[in-house]
Design brief:
The complex is a heterodimer of chains A (199) and B (180).
Chain A: H1 8-28, H2 30-48, E1 53-57, E2 63-67, E3 70-71, E4 79-80, E5 84-85, H3 88-91, H4 93-103, H5 108-137, H6 140-145, H7 150-179, H8 181-194
Chain B: H1 2-20, H2 22-44, E1 51-54, E2 57-60, E3 66-68, H3 76-88, H4 93-124, H5 126-154, H6 170-178
Antiparallel strand pairs in B: 1-2, 2-3
Helix pairs in contact in B: 1-3, 2-4, 3-4, 3-5, 4-5
The chains are: A mainly alpha (199), B mainly alpha (180).
Chain lengths: 199, 180
């Protein structure tokens, strides 16, 4: 037996009620899903710029990328660059997506598939956060060591902005809409039924 | 659906790339962000006179705490998403224009609430501020965009393809039968 489609107001209220527990679950499981997104990001960086990342470490939630790039903090001293990325900035959409799906009464397998579908976009954000540190923020010397010049640095900047400002909050909604077409149709119809017709 | 999705992505990427260019930053983004700081300060002074706005910064004159309204917090990305969704959806132009104008207002009103709430949350507890700023409000603003878009679709005239009845399906029948 299927649940009745709620009105838009009820759907929004359910989403708002589901969001806090989903955020809590997302945060307390962050170490695990960040590890998966981080590993995918490592692959993405290797594809974009092979050889600059030698290892990925995760002491806590943050991801630490050990690079092959050298830095000189003081004259005569050389170290390897190890940029850190906060994966939570790119994975919070998981909590938002699950809240939307639960509010719509979605089946558990759709939630699972959606969570997996979010991973490439989360990895995109993490990868471009690392690349923007290496290719843009840390200056031309580090960028040159990484072999990043001209258009590549522009592409990295654009990729970072998309991964930071658009993907984390938009992709959960897009996936939800893709999984919930029937729910949306019924939501709009039930809303229309509840709205008095104009004479 | 596919046509809508492709159009949505093309318009979104075009508008977003345009937003990042220097001329648009100078002519639209920065002036709007500064106006947002002034509007927020103006509203706050209705109940708390200890606030000043300069540039895109909102600062407390009591304890010096300040927030700088940066990309992602000025509501422009949310506006870009809403505009792309309304332009990509088949609808009469009159309804698109009205929808965009009203929708952008709704998004920006909530964004002002976000800026003001963050201004006070930051003075209270930085951990809570970070959570609200980086995760919670981002989701709430996008939820606002989704609500505005759904309400707009519902208000499209019946002649529009948006309101034409979808093809009958067994699932839809079951769901209707169980609706209250």
């Amino acid at each position: 037996m299927m649940a009745a489609t709620p009105t838009l107001g009820k759907f929004v209220l359910r989403t708002l009620l589901w969001l806090p527990p989903c955020l809590a679950a997302w945060y307390f499981s962050a170490h695990y899903h960040a590890a998966v997104a981080g590993a995918l990001a490592h692959l993405l960086v290797d594809w974009f710029n092979p050889g600059i990342v030698s290892a990925l470490e995760q002491p806590g939630i943050d991801l630490v990328f050990v690079t092959t790039l050298e830095v000189h903090p003081e004259p005569g001293r050389t170290g390897l660059l190890v940029p850190e990325v906060n994966p939570l900035l790119y994975t919070y959409g998981l909590a938002f997506f699950v809240a939307l799906m639960l509010a719509a009464g979605a089946k558990w397998w759709k939630i699972l598939v959606g969570a997996v579908a979010l991973l490439p976009f989360q990895s995109w954000g993490i990868a471009f956060d690392l690349l923007v540190q290496v290719g843009v923020k840390l200056g031309p010397d580090v960028a040159a060591q990484a072999g990043l010049f001209g258009w590549q640095r522009e592409a990295i900047a654009l990729g970072y902005q998309i991964g930071n400002l658009i993907f984390p909050s938009l992709i959960p909604v897009v996936l939800w809409a893709g999984f919930s077409r029937l729910f949306i149709e019924n939501l709009l119809r039930s809303q229309a039924r509840n709205t008095p017709a104009h004479p | 659906m596919l046509r809508f999705f492709i159009l949505f992505v093309v318009i979104l990427v075009t508008l977003f790339a345009a937003e990042l260019t220097q001329p648009v930053q100078s002519a639209v983004v920065l002036p709007w962000t500064e106006a947002l700081a002034r509007i927020s300060a103006g509203l706050i002074t209705l109940f708390d006179s200890n606030v000043v706005a300069f540039g895109k910064i909102l600062q407390s004159t009591t304890n010096g705490f300040a927030v700088s309204i940066e990309a992602g917090c000025n509501g422009i990305e949310a506006a870009v998403v809403l505009i792309a969704a309304m332009l990509a959806f088949p609808a009469p132009w009159k309804h698109r224009v009205i929808g965009i104008l009203v929708g952008l207002s709704a998004v920006q009103v909530l964004n002002i609430v976000r800026v003001i709430s963050l201004f006070y949350l930051g003075q209270w507890n930085m951990k809570v501020f970070e959570w609200a700023h980086l995760y919670l409000w981002q989701a709430l603003i996008m939820l606002d965009v989704l609500i505005v878009w759904l309400v707009w679709i519902r208000m499209l005239p019946p002649s529009s393809p948006a309101d034409s009845p979808p093809p009958p399906s067994a699932d839809a029948g079951v769901q209707h039968a169980t609706a209250p």
